[in-house]
Every structure is written in structure tokens, then in C-alpha cells.
Amino acid sequence: MLFDAVGLGALNMDQLHMVERIAGPDEEVFVRSILESCGGSAANTIIGLARLGLRTAFIGKVAGDREGSILRENLKGGGVADYVAVSDEGRSGRVMGFVDPQGNRALYVDPGVNDTLSMDEVREEALKTRLLHLTSFAGSGIRVQREVLGVIDDSVTVSLDPGHLYAERGASELEGILERTDILLVNRRELEILTGSPDPAMASAELGVDVVVMKMGSEGVRAFDGSEVMVEALETSCRDTTGAGDAFNAGFLYAWLSGHGLEVSCLFGNYMASRCIEGYGATSSLPGREALEVLEGYLRDTYQEKRGDSGK
Ligand SMILES: Nc1ncnc2c1ncn2[C@@H]1O[C@H](COP(=O)(O)OP(=O)(O)OP(=O)(O)O)[C@@H](O)[C@H]1O
Ligand SMILES: [Mg+2]
Q1: Residue 12's beta-bridge partner residues?
Q2: CA of 221 to the centre of ligand 2 (A)
Q3: How far is the CA of 307 from the centre of ligand 2 (A)?
Q4: Which InterPro entries does the entry link to (predicted)?
Q5: Nearest residue CA, atom 7 of ligand 1?
Q6: Domain ranges across the chain
Q7: How would residue 303 be classed by pLDDT, with cut points 50, 70 and 90?
Q8: pLDDT tens across 154-210, in order?
Q9: What is the CATH T-level fold of the domain 156-312, as seen in this structure?
Q10: CA of 159 to the centre of ligand 2 (A)
Q11: Domains 1-130 and 156-312 share a fold
């Protein structure tokens, strides 16, 4: 079977603790409530793509603990084929967040067994795909990503969302990854860290990546694939921006894989992100195949605009 899209990146359980205040050294502070949700940037994007009807799979690693089974169930429940290795020792990845009533946050990341993923745990059939989407690992997981890129077919489109973690490593440490990346999905700050300037066209030349998409939160997106487009974000009632970037990636990649151009892909990315932030959590409010009507509408509008039609 040929998959449409396969994800490869860290899987984490996000545990958000609402606290009275962020504790300093030797202090004791009460926890008011705990919110738990499945995280992992690539997993969020792949679940978004599955919901739009693509054949998807995920490669990663968890431990045989409670968090590990919830993370795998979340993928399976989303219709994603499970190529997640299960370690018989160690802990699954976790991100522990502590938030005070003013919204200040402290984050502690426990990568757990994510970075122990090895090439012999990556099944060959999971690499038969049209698109491979990569996001960050905290440590040595990047080695497996390099190895995977060395064995996949030339026809596979590779997308990378480096997030803050990989951006901070710098372009030289992403050697072996950027050379094989076709589409870089990045936010403004990350692009500045990577290249010194928030300019997708310059980044494309400097990093040798054909398509660079720079996400700019409520300001929308600027992207370059030989020519540049700027697409404004949708006006929406924003509840929770968790996973906005991952939802954007799902919309963009869906449209791109369907053969649409840069502008329509950005429009659909923005649409998926707007649906994500209207609700809570990274994937709960993502739409299903009914969203494809919106994509068709964007296609008609941009086509008519280019022909100078009035739409009659
Ligand atoms: N306040 C907002 N109003 C409308 N759209 C928004 C808003 N915030 C984010 N978006 C949408 O989400 C997309 C991605 O958001 P952002 O630029 O914050 O990416 P990101 O930093 O990668 O996100 P994440 O923190 O999830 O990784 C934007 O391009 C835009 O379409
Ligand atoms: Mg992001």
C-alpha cells in the first residue's frame, strides 16, 4: 500500500497544570487542575490529514506505559496507521506545563524514549508514501530522520516543520535534512533564528529548499516557491492557539499534494488553522472532508481572479 502522508517526529503527552503561581526554588505551590492532551507536532498534522481523507501513517516511539498507550490510541482513533515502536523500558515523552492565573508558563520537557528510536525499528512499508512530514526530536532522533531520508525513494516529497528546537540547532546541524527537504514550514521567529532574516525567498536560496512557507500568526503567511505570495489570516474568534501551526501544515500539505499552487495551499492552510483555534486543543476542532468544499471555493475564486472574471 502506498500512503499519502507519513509523519516522523517526537510524540509527547502534554500535561498542563493550572497553578496559583510558578514555584521558585524550595517553594511549595498548589496545583488547581490538570489538563492532559496528546501532543507531538507531526502527529497533529498527520491526524489533520487523515481527517481530510488521506491514507496516513506515523513513525515514532513510546514506552509501554499509560501515556504511550493513550498516544497510540489517539493516532489509531484518528485513522492513522500505527508504526510506533514500543520500548519495554523507560518513559514516554511528556511536556509538563505550569500556568499561573496571569497566563505565565513554565515548561519542562521529558523526551523519554523518543530519541531512542533506531533505524531497525522503522518498518520499510511505512516509507512507501507520497509525502514524508518531519518535525523535531529533542536529541538524537534526528539521526534516524537523516537515515530515513537516505533510503526513501526520490519521488517522495519531504516537508519539514523544524519548530523552535531544530531552528535553534542552526542550519549546519540540520545537514542531511535540509538538502532533502522540499517544503519548509516555519514561523517568523524560527526563520529569523535559522537564516537571520524573516524572508522566505532569501531562505529558499540560502537553505536550498524549493518551497518556504513562513507562518505569522494573526498576520497570516508569506511563502515562496520561485515567486512570492502573502496570504492574510482569516478573522476568527480565537479560543486557544495550541496546534495552529500544525493545523496550517495539514491544510497546506493537503492542497499541495492535491496539485494546487502556493496561494491556494496557503489559503487552505489558514482555513485549517482558523478552525483549530476556534476550539480547544490541537486536533479536536479540525474539520473532516466537508472542508474540501472550502478548498474548491478558494480554487474557483483565485482562478476567476486571475482570469479577471467577475464570477458570473
Ligand atoms: N489570532 C489568529 N487569528 C487568525 N489566524 C491565526 C491566529 N493565530 C494563528 N493563526 C493561523 O495559524 C497559522 C499558524 O500560526 P503561527 O504563525 O502561530 O504558527 P506556529 O508558530 O508554527 O504555531 P505553533 O505555535 O502551533 O507551532 C497562521 O499562519 C494563521 O493562519
Ligand atoms: Mg510551529
Answers
A1: 39, 93
A2: 12
A3: 35
A4: Carboh/pur_kinase_PfkB_CS, PfkB_dom, Ribo/fructo_kinase, Ribokinase-like
A5: 218
A6: 1-130, 156-312
A7: confident
A8: 999 999 999 999 999 999 999 999 999 999 999 999 999 999 999 999 999 999 999
A9: UDP-N-acetylmuramoyl-L-alanine:D-glutamate ligase (3.40.1190)
A10: 13
A11: yes
Q: What letter represents residue 86's amino acid?
A: V
Mean confidence (pLDDT) of the chain: 95
Which of 61-75, 96-110, 274-288 reaches the highest mean pLDDT? 61-75
> What are the Cα distances from residue 212, in Å, to 26, 87, 182, 203, 238?
46, 36, 8, 7, 26
The superfamily in CATH containing domain 1-130 is Ribokinase (3.40.1190.20)
Mutate to test the pocket of ligand 1, among 166, 191, 241, 262 (most ligand atoms within 8 A of CB): 241
Ligand 1 in reach of 216 Cβ (< 6 A): yes
Q: Which of 117-121, 140-144, 256-260, 297-301 has the lowest mean pLDDT?
A: 297-301
Nearest to 11 by CA among 102, 98, 82: 82
Compute, in degrees rounded to 10, the torsion defined by CA atoms 240, 112, 49, 191.
70
